[in-house]
Please model this.
Amino acid sequence: MSTIIPEIKKRSDYQQPDFLINHVDLEFTLAETSTKVICVSQVTRNGLHNRPLILDGEGIELLSVHINGIEVSNYQQTENSLTIDTDSNEFELRIVNIINPKDNSSLEGLYLSAGAYCTQCEAEGFRKITYFLDRPDVLAKYDVTIIADKKNFPFLLSNGNKVDSGELPDSMHWVKWSDPFNKPCYLFALVAGDFDLLEDQFVTQSGRTIALELFVDKGMLSRGQHALDSLKKAMRWDETEFGLEYDLDIYMIVAVDFFNMGAMENKGLNVFNSKFVLADAQTATDEDYFNIEAVIAHEYFHNWTGNRVTCRDWFQLSLKEGLTVFRDQQFSADMSSPIVNRIQNVRIIRERQFAEDASTMSHPIRPDEVIEMNNFYTVTVYDKGAEVIRMLFTLLGKTGFLAGIKLYFKRFDGQAVTCDDFVQAMQDANDKDLSQFRRWYSQSGTPKVVVTDSYDPSAKTYQITFEQQHSATFDQNEKQDLVIPIQFSLLNDKLELIKLGDAKQQQKMLELHDSKQSLEFKNIDSKPIPSLLHGFSAPVKLDYPYSQQQLGNVMLGSPDEFARWDAGQKLFSDCIHDLAGKTQQQQKDSINQTVAMFEPIIEATDISLALKAEILTLPSFETLFQQMDTVDIDGLNQSRKLLFKALAQKFQNNWLTQYSKFEKQPYAYQANQVEQRKMRNLALKYLTLSGQHDVEQLLIEQFNGADNMTDSLAVLGAAQLGDLDLFEKLMLLFEQKWHNDPLVLDKWFALHANTERPDILARISMLMGHSQFTINNPNRVRALIGTFSFFNVSGFHNIDGSGYKFVADYLIKLNEVNPQIAARIITPLIQWQKVDKVRQQLMQHQLMRIGDTKGLSNDLFEKISKSLP
Ligand code: TRP
Ligand code: ZN
Model:
């Protein structure tokens, strides 16, 4: 490994800033390779001390420093700081510097995205723009002037309100913006370019009119409507559900093609990955429509949970992200199907968050140590963080939760605060002791809840015992008991609900806080079947010795839809895991027996079509992987396929019926259509696997007749799954049609990358030469390289090590271009903990190779150094 060891920052080392900045005047003169930045800050010393002012800065060419109008030269510069010693306690600091947006391929700070200037400052990108106190607890008001060529950059945007503008010689122009709200520099944004503009309005509950402006690439106007509609829904929802109203007079969203993540909540000026803005029926799938609505809402909700109240330091990231993800999940549930949403949330936890916690990157939702902050925008901080908020919601009830939120804003509006501050507000508003609950913030790892029970027929009593178990994680040896809300109910053998307690409650919530707790129920006529962890009431692994019959009963009879789905998933996964080491005949019998359990689901009339489709979908390879301690990669892959095929064949008639029963309507993103397409395209997959004789005909008909991307893509997915020759033919046609549309082509790149074929690496190498592919665009890299490493099980984990080497080679290149993306894509390579010894060594060998790279980024250094023994 490289020998320069970067600094590890610790949460416990937090100290208040030595200086505060309360006003910033920024002026940008935009030019591709030398943009001039003038930053005038009003600085005050914070407390009594004589330490110098130390500003953050990276890759900046400093021209001059003035204090109170007088040039100073006795400053010291290092690679990432500027130290200025002064006796003044209050002064104006003027810094003039040059930056180079054109050569900025990291997509942090100011960069060019397909000819437009844009910024990305979270977490620590502002320091690439100018020398500053780049930390979230320094809050200031910003006035921003942008100067640029008028022809190429007719739109000059920044946060807040446009207050002035004018013309300059040489066809230049300028615009001045003023943001009346205090903000940390990570919420600063600047955009300059030529766009199509979609305009609308929103009238708030108090009657204020907000201008809504959506900026998209030229020619993309018709693809912006869904995003704008989503924004209005989110604004209304936050008013009615949380009582929160928008605060500025204008809300702008800009879609850009080069972007490291999904979107960014800059005050009044969100910047989005165009993938999460642009949609029409021809180019976007139902899933895209869903994601756009969710991400638009997420960024909008940040205006209160993130911007009005922000984080004191980056260790507190979950303060805004966990809470905002929880809010966007609630919103999405209200906009569409709550159960399908919940299933989707749980899949992310089980496939990705459990994997993270089982890996060398394990960390609590509030991390204790960080080298590169960008590495901690994780499924743990975001999605497990949202689960922790959800548990508070469950424990306090909606009314109690909202009372806590209200107190939180009353106490902390305009401030930069901690996760503890948030929990304290919840505690005080509800008069409930949350001290043990707080351990969810400091403890990493996936808890296991082991449930046992016994029934005494003579006394007619039923006892059920819950025990929480915690094992050491890579980052933490000592674990403590947590507060785990477990919602459950009991069924009798006629699948009727047993009333629990005197409140005639049918669902009960146990607050498991001891390591072991038992409940006893009286007057129970026969041994009940427990339906456990309703709604996934806690992010844990649950262990109860269910028989197959009992699972079947929960799947058919639980009052909780999530528990029904989960029981079905467990039937499938038990079957898959049990196939290992069996004879062919035994495998056949066992598969048949499991498949038969689903017959009643096919017939069921008491569940929605959407839920039915979810129940009939096998658990993903990634979910199955996380259920095991050590994984036989090839065996697991094969077993899953066996069951897949059996389901296809056994219910062939049903798939045919499901496929043909819905009347075709012109495409609309609308709940009943979405669920019909979901079921129909699931049926198409199964039909393809079943060997149905005329399936190629079906596929071609659907491909040619589709009026929307969901149905076109489903054909490609099915043909790929069925390993049909048709797949290659259709992929060619698809490419001919869409080669000028990068967002659509990403779907095509991803399909290629996920194909099982012996020459997959040659195929991917060839695609890297495609005219639309560029290492500089994260969407392309994620689609091709990311999909291969995350999802192409047979290719990535090829026992000859070629998949690992291929990814490593690519990451060594990507390290130079965009370390943030490289560090995301390395994830599957550092998750070697559960695979066989041969593969572990191959993976570690590649990690070492990357580790030896000259100029290794902090991003990769942190992940690799943790992951090597
Ligand atoms: N705060 C953003 C969100 O959750 C995510 C974000 C963090 C981000 N760092 C980023 C987005 C860098 C783009 C680039 O919505
Ligand atoms: Zn966010």
